[in-house]
C-alpha cells in the first residue's frame, strides 16, 4: 500500500478509493464499501440513533451467483453504502486487508447535501397576515398621496408660504402612515418570544410566531415524539404441535434455556459490541437482554490468526443454569459440560425492509448439523414455513395483538442438511435457506405512549386543530398508536389506500380496504371509489361535525404513486388522511406542501434529522431534539414532549391578536 496518500476531503472525486480508519470517522462523501465491515450511526439521516452494520459489496468474480446481472444503486444497496455525514463508529477487517470504500457522490449530490440544500433554500412561506399588512400599508400610502397633492395644490392657490406648505404636507403623510407601525407590530412578537424562552422553547425565526397563531393542523412524528423511543418486551407466545401455548412473560426460564425458541432470540439479530457495550437495533437489544445471554466477538488477533472474520458466539450466563448445592463430583462434571453450551453465528443474512425478515445460520458447539433461524413480519414468516407447523388461528391471534398496538415478530427454525459445510454456507443463496421452516411462535413488543400525549392531542381537538401522524414505522402499528392516543376515536373507521404503480401494461390503480377487517370496501373501479369515499366522509359525519367518521391511512409507496398518477385525488386524501406510515424524509416534506396547497396552516413536530425538510417547510416547525433537527426548525423545545405545541400556539395567537390590534394605529 505504498500508494496511500492523505488528502483534504474537499479534493475527493467520484471514483477515488478511500480507506476507513479502524477507530471510525465521519463520512465526507457517499461511498460504497469494497472490503471489510463497518458499524455506522446513521441518525443524521434517518433519525434512528441505532448503529447499523454495513457489509462490503460482494465481488462478482468471487460470487457470480450472488450478484447476477444486478446494477448498483445507493437506494437498493443501502446495506453496502456509507452515506455522507454518518458516523462510522468501528470497522472490522480481514488480516492484511484494509477497509476500503469507493467514492460515489460528493458535495450537494450526496444524501446529506440534498438535505442541507432543502434547509438552505426552502420554498418561501407565504403568510396572509403579512400580505394583507402590505396591502393595507399600500392603500394608506395611496390615501396619503391624494391628501398630500390636495394640500399642496390648495396651499399654493391660497398663497401659503413654501415652508408651511412642506411641513403641513409631510404632516398628512405621517398621520396617515404611522411611522411607529412596524415597531408596534414587532412588540407583540418580542414579548411572545421572551415568554416562550421562559417555558423552554427557543426561536430562531421570530416572524414565524405570528404564523403559529393561525395553525389549524399539526403533523406529528411517532417514535420519540408521540411514543417513547424504545420498545419493551411484553411477552412471548410459543407454538408446539401447530398450536399456540399461553403467552409467557419471561423467556429466560430454566425449561426454555436450550429450546430452539430461545436459541433463535439469542442468534437472530445484528448486535455488535462497541467498546465492550452491546449496540444495535433497540428491538434486537431488548430481545437479547430478555433472555440474559452473553455475546462474545472475536478479537482482531483471533481474526488475523484464522485469516477470516471469526464467528460471533452467544451463550447463556452461568446464573441461568440451575445450580445444585450438594452435588457429587460426577454431577459437577455434567454441570460443567452443560455450562459450555454455546452457539456460533456462522452467517448472517441482514434484515431487509423489502423482504421484511432477517435470517442467520448458526451451529451449536459440538453439533455436526447447522441450524437456520429466521425472524421478521409474522405474515412473511408464516408464508415461508411448512403450513402444517403454522397454527390455524394464527391470523386471529396476530390481529388481536396488532389491534392493541403491539409490535409482533414471528420466529422460525430449520435444521440444515449435514452436507452444508462452512464454505458452502458462505456462498449459498438466501432463498435456499429461507424455505420449509418450522414456525416457532411470536415475540410481542410494546411501544409505550408518552404520558402527556393523549391530553395534548385532546386539547388540540377541542381547539378544532386537526392532528396527523407522519412516521417511518409500520402501518398497523401507526394506526394502533393513533387510536391509543385519541387521534382516531374508537368508533371511527380507517380506510387504507393502497396504490399500485403501473406494471406489465396495467395502469396504476388504488385498492381501498378497511384497516380492521382488511376486506375490500367497494367495487374494483378505483375511479368510482375515489369519488364516492370522500363524499361519504362529508355526509356520514358524527353528531360533532368536526370529528370525521372515516380516516385515510397510506404508506410512503402509495403516497408516491398517488402524487405521480392520481394528482386530482391528492387534495381529497390529504383532507381526511390521518396516518401516513413508512414515509421517507422527502415524502414528509411533500405531504406538508400538499396540506398547504389545500389552505391549511401546518405545524410539524418531530425529533429526528429525517424530519428536517418538513420542519423547515411547515408554517411552524417544532423540533424536540437539540441535534440536527434544531438547525432546520424555527422552534426548538428543551423538553422532549409535545406539550410545547399548545403553548406555542397560545403565544402565537397572543402575538397575532396584538399585530391585528396594531394595524388600525
TrEMBL record:
Q: Which residues form the P-type ATPase A domain?
A: 3-119
The record's listing under Gene3D superfamilies reads: Calcium-transporting ATPase, cytoplasmic domain N, Calcium-transporting ATPase, cytoplasmic transduction domain A, HAD superfamily/HAD-like
Keywords annotated in UniProt: ATP-binding, Endosome, Magnesium, Membrane, Metal-binding, Nucleotide-binding, Phosphoprotein, Translocase, Transmembrane, Transmembrane helix
Q: What is one Gene Ontology biological process annotated in the Swiss-Prot or TrEMBL record? A: intracellular calcium ion homeostasis
Q: Name one GO molecular function term.
A: ATPase-coupled monoatomic cation transmembrane transporter activity
One GO term of the cellular component aspect? late endosome membrane
Give me the segments passing through the membrane. Answer: 133-152, 172-192
Where in or outside the cell?
A: Late endosome membrane
| InterPro entries in the cross-refs | ATPase_P-typ_cyto_dom_N (IPR023299), ATPase_P-typ_P_site (IPR018303), ATPase_P-typ_TM_dom_sf (IPR023298), ATPase_P-typ_transduc_dom_A_sf (IPR008250), ATPase_P-type_domA (IPR059000), HAD-like_sf (IPR036412), HAD_sf (IPR023214), P-type_TPase_V (IPR006544)
What is the predominant subcellular site recorded for this chain?
membrane
Q: How does it sit in the membrane?
A: Multi-pass membrane protein
Question: Which residue positions does the secretion signal occupy?
Answer: none
Domain of life from the UniProt record: Eukaryota
Q: What family does the Swiss-Prot or TrEMBL record give for this protein? A: Belongs to the cation transport ATPase (P-type) (TC 3.A.3) family. Type V subfamily.
Which protein is depicted? ATPase 13A3
Which organism is the protein's source?
A: Buteo japonicus
